[in-house]
Specification:
The complex is a heterodimer.
Chain A (H helix, E strand, L loop, with lengths): L1 H10 L5 H25 L8 E9 L4 E7 L1 H20 L7 H20 L3 H10 L1 H11 L4 H30 L6 H10 L4 H18 L8 H8 L2 H24 L3 H27 L4 H22 L2 H32 L15 H14 L6 H16 L1 H26 L16 H19 L2 H23 L2
Helix pairs in contact in A: 1-2, 1-4, 2-3, 2-4, 3-4, 3-11, 3-14, 3-18, 3-19, 4-5, 4-6, 4-11, 6-7, 7-9, 7-10, 9-11, 9-12, 10-11, 10-13, 11-13, 11-14, 12-13, 12-17, 13-14, 13-16, 13-17, 14-15, 14-16, 14-18, 14-19, 15-17, 15-18, 16-17, 16-18
Chain B lengths: L10 H19 L8 H20 L4 E3 L4 E3 L1 H24 L7 H20 L3 H19 L6 H32 L4 H10 L4 H18 L8 H7 L2 H26 L4 H23 L5 H22 L2 H32 L10 H4 L1 H15 L5 H15 L3 H26 L13 H19 L1 H13 L11
Antiparallel strand pairs in B: 1-2
Helix pairs in contact in B: 1-2, 1-4, 2-3, 3-4, 3-10, 3-13, 3-19, 4-5, 4-10, 5-6, 5-10, 6-8, 6-9, 8-10, 9-10, 9-12, 10-12, 10-13, 11-12, 11-17, 12-13, 12-16, 12-17, 13-15, 13-16, 13-18, 13-19, 15-17, 15-18, 16-17, 16-18
Classes of the chains: A mainly alpha, B mainly alpha.
Chain lengths: ~475, ~475
Amino acid sequence: MPAVALIAITLVSKEKSNLIRQIANTGIFLSLLLSGYVFVNYNHVQGGFQFVEQIPWVIPFGISYHLGIDGINSVLVLLLGISSFAATLVSKNIKDRVKEYYILLLLIVLGTYGAFLSVDIFFFYFFHEIAAVPTFLMMSLWGSGRKDYGAMKLMLYLTAGASIALVGLIALYCHVGLNSFNLIEIQQYLATNPLPVHVQYWIFPLIVLGFGITLTLWPFYTWAPVGYATAPTAVSMLHAGVLKKLGAYAILRFAILLMPQAAAVWMPVVAILAILNILYCGLIALVQRDIKYLLGYSSCSHMGYVLLGLACINVIGLNGVVALMFAHGILASLGFALIGFVSDQTQTRNLDELGGIAKRMPFIATCFSMMALASAGVPGFANFVGEIMVLIGSWDAYRWQTVLAVLGIVLGAVYMLKTIRLGFQGPMNAKWAKLSDAQTITEKLPFVLLLAALIAVGCWPSFILRNIDSGIKPLSQQIQKSLNQP
Amino acid sequence: MFPIIDWNILSLEVSITAILVGLIVIDIAQPKGNSSRLVPTLSFLALGALILFWLFNGAVFGTTFNGMFVSDSLSWDFKGFFLMAMNFILTMTQQYFKTSGDRLDSFYYLLWLALLGACLLASSGDFLVLFIALEILTISLYVMTAYLKSDKLSLEAGMKYLILGALSSAFFLFGISFIYGVTHSTRFEIIKGYVDFHGMDPMMLFASILVLSAIGFKIASVPFQQWVPDVYQGAPTPVTALLSVVSKAAGFIMLIRLFFGVFNAWHIQWETVLAVLSAITMCYGNLGAMFQTNIKRLLGYSSIGHAGYLLMGAAAGSTLGASAINFYLLGYLFTNLAAFLVIVLFYNAAKSDDISDYAGLAKRSGSLAIALLLALVSLAGIPPLAGFFGKFTLLMAAVKSNLIWLALIAAVNIVISTYYYLRVVKTIYVDQPRVTTPIAVSFPVQLVIGFAITGIVVIGICQGPFLEIAMRSVNNMAFLATYVSQ
């Protein structure tokens, strides 16, 4: 669906920016509906891949254009649908080069949809990388601050990660020896004939390191705060919210589920790095004055929980990871959208300059406070569900890491509340007397939509969990079985 | 005994020679003064006819002149490759010499002569024919490189190229004489028969090192790469394009013929040498390109880097490796020639090759900017463009032959190359132009640009058919060692 909108926009002339905007909105909205439909109609009792579509593509290598939905990616596709729709809605402030903007935005969305839906490992990578160059161009063209530096840094880190992961994936393909990139076939084959352990040992870290860079694995997280701070709002939303999750998704799918023996050996290392992510990035976030940087570091810190969950390799932990990916995706989109709204009006993101703006924009301030509470892991929001599952999952395997991770939650509460106090509450800076709140429905819609998703999942977690569980459980049981075999 | 000559096999070469002679005769016959239009037009028409002939006549396979001239799938496909490249190079020539029509006709003869040399080289089945073909190609390149009589850089480039080229030819001849000394023949068939049944002896080792160095000069691999940046910068741009695509492809045909065919029995001994050369070459090229300010020089260094990637396929030593080289070269043809075409057109408008002058090209000419953007992104190897799948197949060939370390070095190099290509992309799209006059591009030239863009995108997305052509042309190659690993 985004592809159709993309072609439609390319054909429309440059001057008609309103028409372009409408086409983009409609296209993304339709794909949101489509992903909602797929999500709701996914049969979680039956499990496995549904809605499958397959066309052989490169026959000599066994590559096929192969899309399908299972429990795990149905949730993530829904996340993408919601975030991308919100991201398109907040883009209405773009006035310059509107056509190019929407073309690039749609390319990113298209690539991400493709990556989540691909059942073929080659096409996963292919789509995953399609989003890279548009991101770079959007950051350099519509970004702010040190945008050249930020865009180049993000691009180089992500390319490095992707290239390393690519070598890992190719090595995996060659060693499986099925001459096929079809994930289902590889899964079934490896379930009965696991790779030799010594091969797993070196392929596994390549994939985890490669996609770990996308997931801001400590110490390769430095691209993220700078990148998000300099990127235009929609890109920060999509990247922090969704694209980053591709890294976790790939580690889960291609590394842990395919090479459990190596995972059992390497994952304690990842767990330690995860704790460093949580605490180190959390501490940095504590001293930030620029709200976008603060959210960037906080997002790296949250990724620590995702990594910790991945490290536990048990049903509840992995379920928690996917739930947390969903929750954090919505949260990050919401956070960056709010900051984008504020900084568009005030031209600053500095906590010292802001202050008291809640009086002028009560709606935004309320949304921000709720976002902050969700980020701090208060029950009732989706993040709580994910975090608690991850922590329960990791308790047995990593006792002291779990204790430290809980400390991280406290840290998160501290910096979020500090931001509210300095930025939104307190005496009003006289400069901001003329600010206006989000008024029309279209202005409010993205925030309401994202908040609604957070609260809905927070209050009724099984809405997403039953799908996730149907995806994770069979695979995870398979892993346990193969780990228990000598 | 006079050999029976099968003219059918030679039809393409004979036609090229006839065209060449015909053009010279027409040029001499017509009165002085109004010569500048006729030869270019006839060249285009003749080339069009040849391309149609290549497309629809179907390949004629066989050998003639007692096996000195071989027409097989490899040579036939590469002849198509050269004709396609000539199409772009003639367009460039026509644009480049728009302003100075002086002595232009002889430039066209030299182009045709170079084409003849390249086609003969693809078909040679004997070291002497190979040498003659190589000299036909190289000597016309010497003359064309120094073609701008009043330009110091061009003369310097021609001189450098001549001296180093002559040296490499001398090496080559020296090598052939050793081979003749050992095997009593220059015929590939007989030498292959010798190699298949003998171990490597010092004499043949020495000879093949000399031959390899001549190939290294052609493809610009370390340690024979020193001429590249200066010659690429100094030569007229169409000649640079010719050097970077046709001459490099010619080198790789020699490499495939000799090291996948004739000398393949000794592959084990060669593997490490080629792999190390590949690693050093790609690092040299990419690191050198990082800080260049002249775009032709940048592409010169980057072409060294690409030679390094391509050597990875040679080091793999499997048919997959050779097919990967073929596929990569096909993508490289469209990509690199699109870039050089833009450079020619830009030079006509701005009289400069400095990257800083490209600032804001997107605002001056949309089509040039898009073409250069796609070309550079494809060279960087980012999907969905042709360069990506080429790198993917090369990496796969390397990993399959257990050259993981080489694949990882290549992955690092991809990151480095992303940096300098994207720097140019940023200049084109983000920076403010110093001169804002739009650059007009005539309709026929836009068609050629459109063709190149189509090539880049189509090869990048529908990789299957092209990969199958690349594999077929290797698998049915003459002298292919029977036990080459798949």
